Amino acid sequence: MSSPKTILVFDVDGTLTAARQGITAEMREFLAETRKRVPLAVVGGSDFKKITEQLAGHDRDLLLSSFDYVFSENGLLGFKGTDAFPVQSIQKAIGDEKLQELINFALRYMSEIRLPKKRGNFVEFRNGMINLSPIGRSCSQEERMEFVKFDSENGIRLKFAEELKKNFGKCGLQFAIGGQISVDVFPTGWDKTFCLQYFENDYDVIHFFGDKTAPGGNDHEIFADERTIGHTVEGPEDTRKQVEAVLNAI
C-alpha cells in the first residue's frame, strides 16, 4: 500500500516565528528540509505584507517559493505556488452600513478602556477582516509585551470579544483573539478553515500546527476541524519537535 498523501499546515505567529518577529535561519532551513518529504502550507491571520515580512524579509518570491500554499487573512487571500486564488472582501459580505456600525462601536468601546499605555492604529481594515487593537498596532515591542502581561491578568481582549459577539453576533460575524494585541472580526466561516477548500481534496492527511488553539483563539476552528489533525505548539522550537515526531511516524 502507498503512504497517504500528507500536507503540513502552519500558523505564523507563535508557531513558525516568535510573535511579530522574523523567521530564524534555522527554522527556514528546517522547513526546506521538511518540504523535501511533504508539502507545506502556511495560513496566518495577518495581511500578506506582514506575513511576507516575517517569513521572507519582504521578499514575495522567496515566500511563495518556500511553501506549496500561502494564505494570509485566514485564507481570504491565497496562493498555490505563484497562482492566486480569488480575493474575498468583508465589505461585500456584510455591507458598508453594518461595517461602519461595527467600527463606531469598537472605537467607542476601546476609548473607555484604561491601559498602561495606548498608541495608534486601533482599527486595521483588511480584505476579509477587521483587526481591532485596544493598545494600537503602532506600539513598540516593549509596549506590546507590557500589554500582553496586562491582558493576561485582566482579560481585556476576551471581554472585548464577548461584547462584540453580544452586539454583532447575529450579523453573521465571528470574533477571535488574534496574535498578542488584537481581536479579529470576520464573516462567519471565514476563519482559518476557509483555506482548506483549496487543497483538502488533494491530500489524505492534513496536519495543522498552531498556538492559539483554545476556544476563542484564531487557530481553534482549523485545529478542531474534522478534516485536520491538530497540534498545539508553544513556540517555534516546539513546532520543530512536533513536526519531527509526525515525520518519524510517516
Keywords:
250 residues, alpha/beta, Rossmann fold, 7-stranded mixed β-sheet, 9 helices
What is this structure's SSE topology?
Layout (H helix, E strand, L loop, with lengths): L5 E5 L14 H11 L4 E4 L4 H9 L3 H7 L2 E4 L4 E4 L2 E2 L5 H5 L1 H16 L11 E3 L4 E3 L8 H14 L1 H13 L4 E6 L3 E6 L17 E6 L9 H5 L4 E4 L3 H14 L1
Parallel strand pairs: 1-2, 1-10, 2-3, 10-11
Antiparallel strand pairs: 3-4, 4-5, 6-7, 7-9, 8-9
Subcellular location: Cytoplasm
Cofactor: Mg(2+)
Keywords: Cytoplasm, Isomerase, Magnesium, Metal-binding
Describe the structure.
The protein is an alpha/beta fold and 250 residues long. It folds into two domains: 6-76 and 190-249, Rossmann fold (3-Layer(aba) Sandwich), CATH 3.40.50.1000; 90-187, Hypothetical Protein, Haloacid Dehalogenase-like Hydrolase, Chain: A, domain 2, CATH 3.30.1240.20. Helices cover 38% and strands 19% of the residues. It contains nine helices and eleven strands. It has helices at 25-35, 48-56, 60-66, 90-94, 96-111, 141-154, 156-168, 220-224, 236-249, and strands spanning 6-10, 40-43, 69-72, 77-80, 83-84, 123-125, 130-132, 173-178, 182-187, 205-210, 229-232. The strands form two sheets. The chain has a seven-stranded mixed sheet with strand order 5-4-3-2-1-10-11. A four-stranded antiparallel sheet has the order 6-7-9-8. Strand 10 (205-210), helix 8 (220-224) and strand 11 (229-232) form a beta-alpha-beta unit. The two termini are 13 Å apart. The mean pLDDT is 95. It comes from Caenorhabditis briggsae. Involved in the synthesis of the GDP-mannose and dolichol-phosphate-mannose required for a number of critical mannosyl transfer reactions. Mg(2+) binds at residues 11, 13, 211, 223, 225, 228. It catalyses: alpha-D-mannose 1-phosphate = D-mannose 6-phosphate. Homodimer.
